[in-house]
Amino acid sequence: MQASHSIQADEEEGEEAVAAAAAAELQQHSALHSKKTLAAKRRLKKQRQRIQKRLVRKQQRIEEQQSQLGSAASAAILDLIYDPYSLAEKLFSRVRQQRESFSTRLVFVNLLARLAGHHRLLLSPFYNYLSLYLSPTQRLSPQLLAAAATAAHAAVPAAELLPLLKTIADNFVTETRGEEAITLGLNAVNPKP
């Protein structure tokens, strides 16, 4: 399945390159060999717009296909994990070691959150770890808040989530913060209907 996606992506990149080359060739040809009339300029502009529309539509189709495959496939993959708790512990120990860059650790945090939410795992130190990085000045705080929301489920005791909620309320929902930070904090704390 991965190979077909990479082949498909390579083909689409090739088609985009061909379309871009055709547009460049058309522009170069018209710039060198044609009379600069208003009608010719309009025709060239329309051709560029058509090529651009095709590329945008193709990109939208690709994104739709990936999103449809992504959600169903990732849930099925999470179901196939043999021992999710031991995997979560290994991932969390790797995240705490801080050998990787923060963006790599964020990928692990997202995977941990998905594992905890899907399999209803109780990872007490994970919520404390998230609270260390939750601040409005953190560039990736929306992703961390999303991970916290994904990892929280009904089986987690309220006493474990309370420090995390307190951190969110203290750091985001205060009158000294901007509207974006307050909105982020309120959306993270309030459950969705």
UniProtKB/TrEMBL annotation:
Residues 41-68 form a coiled coil. Residues 11-189 form the SDA1 N-terminal domain. The keyword Membrane does not apply. One of its GO terms (cellular component) is nucleolus. Transmembrane segments: none annotated. One of its GO terms (biological process) is ribosomal large subunit export from nucleus. It is found in: Nucleus, Nucleolus. Residues 1-20 are annotated as: Disordered. The keyword Coiled coil applies. InterPro entries: Sda1 (IPR027312), SDA1_N (IPR012977). Belongs to the SDA1 family. Required for 60S pre-ribosomal subunits export to the cytoplasm. This is Protein SDA1.
